[in-house]
Amino acid sequence: MALPMIREIFAQVFKRPATNPFPARFLPPSVTEFLKKVGAGEATINPPVATPPNFRGKIVYDRDGCIGCNLCIRVCPAHAIEFIPETKRIRIYVAQCIFCSQCNDICPKGVLTMSPEFLLATEDRFAESQIVE
Amino acid sequence: MSEGTPTKKAPYVVPIGPIHPALKEPVQFLFDMEGEVVKKADFAPGQAHRGIEWMGMRRNPIQIIHMTDRICGICGVTHSFAFARAIEQIVDIEVPAHAEYIRVIIAEFERIQSHLLWAGVAAHELGFDTLFYLAWRVREEAMDVIEYITGNRVNYGLIQVGGVRRDITPEQHPTIQKCLDGYRDLLGKMLNLFLKDTTIAIRCKDCGLLSFEEARNLCTVGPTARASGVPKDVRVDYPYSAYGDLDISPILPTAYGGDINGDVYDRIVVRLLEVAQSVEIIETCLKEMPEGPILWEPKLPKLLSACKKAQGEAVGRHEAPRGECLHYVAMDGHEAPAMWKVKASSYSNLHSWIPMLEGEQLADVPIIVASIDPCLSCTDRVAVIRGAKRDLMTKEDLHQLSVEKTRRIQGC
């Protein structure tokens, strides 16, 4: 019986796990409770793996540089961008955004960029953190 | 399959799915069993239809290219590559050579990660979870490089109509090269762990047989066809992009020294050796990559108006990790395409399940089903749902519906 895996298993015993334990080093009894504690400053989060350069995370919008040309709305695949005629500015719904950064490429003024922020999950899709304007 | 009332005598019908722990994606199987042996097999795909083509026909090509990224969860570049090639033919765009090489590099990295993912799934289906974890750990290195080049891990967003959106600079070469060297060292180990293992050999040899004739008659594609000895590979048969400059040939199981049996074992051999082939291709591309721009038209509004003016139809093809992927696009002078049809590689391969499964034991079903590397969310394109009943519409049914509608209109 050939079992070439045996050597690999014994070698693995002396190696560190490849997985980064996130958000806590050891599984807390309740992850929700743990995150609440983190929010209150009672516990610290085990940091996630660093994002690569050019990572496409939550969108950042420089309102003052925008000229209201609407080109970003034309190329957004998810229809996540809305034009507000009164202010001639845009509003981006992060919950709908698919993080393709196509709007960044087409923007003639370069006012749209992608930040490395990626922990965006909430229960309310219209929460303050989910709307960029 | 089994008509009328269920019988108390054999053959018994064993349904598996649409949702079942043995299946990674939704598809329904019906097996007529005699004892442990599958006498007759049938399957019903169409459980994961999302209407993505309908969405595409209401958007412009630049928007669609990012939707194609999301057709499949594993092939992040396959569909956008095939779609971009279709549009480029219609609009008559010449992609810069530099961009073609970057496209090939990322497509081959995708093949590496997809085949390693499959190897892990196959090991898991056999109950060999240690090997599953190992395969997925080494897969991460390819994922990390993809992330390093494109910015994201799964939805790369790299392809643009007429080129690519991100360059591979000389500063990035050492990181990519390090990953490739890692895979070259690893390959011998993976071949040893998968192919020398007695358990895997017992479970996979002479299991899920697909003969050369069956593979050819059923039009199977990709590694499934090649494992049965059909030397079929879009990259070689119809060279596109930078593949024309490369010296590659389809990998058959004979490359490992054995005969061609067309069993699950041969499919493992083909996929593992293709990882080695992809490493070679990437290395050649990195060395021979010509200088130049990465986009045909960097000004996107100009690209959009060029696409809007275009008229015609074209087929874009790409050799995905699972086989040939095909996108048909027709443009008629509007912003959105008039027609867009996706044929994923698994669509061609699903039919090979029936000859593979018949005569096998029920316990072999998971590994045989997994052996063609089915990707059902890519495949499922049309589903007819009426109330709680889902059905196939025949010509007679449609005619009947039409007659009924005429009567209804006449009635009111």
TrEMBL record, chain A:
<dbReference type="InterPro" id="IPR017900">
    <property type="entry name" value="4Fe4S_Fe_S_CS"/>
</dbReference>
<dbReference type="InterPro" id="IPR050572">
    <property type="entry name" value="Fe-S_Ferredoxin"/>
</dbReference>
<keyword id="KW-0411">Iron-sulfur</keyword>
<protein>
    <submittedName>
        <fullName>4Fe-4S dicluster domain-containing protein</fullName>
    </submittedName>
</protein>
<dbReference type="Pfam" id="PF13237">
    <property type="entry name" value="Fer4_10"/>
</dbReference>
<dbReference type="GO" id="GO:0051539">
    <property type="term" value="F:4 iron, 4 sulfur cluster binding"/>
</dbReference>
<dbReference type="GO" id="GO:0016491">
    <property type="term" value="F:oxidoreductase activity"/>
</dbReference>
<feature type="domain" description="4Fe-4S ferredoxin-type">
    <location>
        <begin position="88"/>
        <end position="117"/>
    </location>
</feature>
<keyword id="KW-0677">Repeat</keyword>
<feature type="domain" description="4Fe-4S ferredoxin-type">
    <location>
        <begin position="57"/>
        <end position="86"/>
    </location>
</feature>
<keyword id="KW-0479">Metal-binding</keyword>
<keyword id="KW-0813">Transport</keyword>
<dbReference type="GO" id="GO:0046872">
    <property type="term" value="F:metal ion binding"/>
</dbReference>
<keyword id="KW-0408">Iron</keyword>
<keyword id="KW-0249">Electron transport</keyword>
<dbReference type="InterPro" id="IPR017896">
    <property type="entry name" value="4Fe4S_Fe-S-bd"/>
</dbReference>
<keyword id="KW-0004">4Fe-4S</keyword>
From TrEMBL, chain B:
<keyword id="KW-0408">Iron</keyword>
<feature type="binding site">
    <location>
        <position position="378"/>
    </location>
    <ligand>
        <name>Fe cation</name>
    </ligand>
</feature>
<feature type="binding site">
    <location>
        <position position="375"/>
    </location>
    <ligand>
        <name>Ni(2+)</name>
    </ligand>
</feature>
<dbReference type="InterPro" id="IPR001135">
    <property type="entry name" value="NADH_Q_OxRdtase_suD"/>
</dbReference>
<feature type="binding site">
    <location>
        <position position="53"/>
    </location>
    <ligand>
        <name>Mg(2+)</name>
    </ligand>
</feature>
<feature type="binding site">
    <location>
        <position position="75"/>
    </location>
    <ligand>
        <name>Fe cation</name>
    </ligand>
</feature>
<feature type="domain" description="NADH-quinone oxidoreductase subunit D">
    <location>
        <begin position="126"/>
        <end position="381"/>
    </location>
</feature>
<dbReference type="InterPro" id="IPR052197">
    <property type="entry name" value="ComplexI_49kDa-like"/>
</dbReference>
<feature type="binding site">
    <location>
        <position position="342"/>
    </location>
    <ligand>
        <name>Mg(2+)</name>
    </ligand>
</feature>
<protein>
    <submittedName>
        <fullName>NADH dehydrogenase subunit</fullName>
    </submittedName>
</protein>
<dbReference type="Pfam" id="PF00346">
    <property type="entry name" value="Complex1_49kDa"/>
</dbReference>
<dbReference type="InterPro" id="IPR029014">
    <property type="entry name" value="NiFe-Hase_large"/>
</dbReference>
<keyword id="KW-0533">Nickel</keyword>
<feature type="binding site">
    <location>
        <position position="72"/>
    </location>
    <ligand>
        <name>Ni(2+)</name>
    </ligand>
</feature>
<dbReference type="InterPro" id="IPR001501">
    <property type="entry name" value="Ni-dep_hyd_lsu"/>
</dbReference>
<keyword id="KW-0479">Metal-binding</keyword>
<keyword id="KW-0560">Oxidoreductase</keyword>
<feature type="binding site">
    <location>
        <position position="75"/>
    </location>
    <ligand>
        <name>Ni(2+)</name>
    </ligand>
</feature>
<keyword id="KW-0460">Magnesium</keyword>
<dbReference type="GO" id="GO:0016491">
    <property type="term" value="F:oxidoreductase activity"/>
</dbReference>
<dbReference type="Pfam" id="PF00374">
    <property type="entry name" value="NiFeSe_Hases"/>
</dbReference>
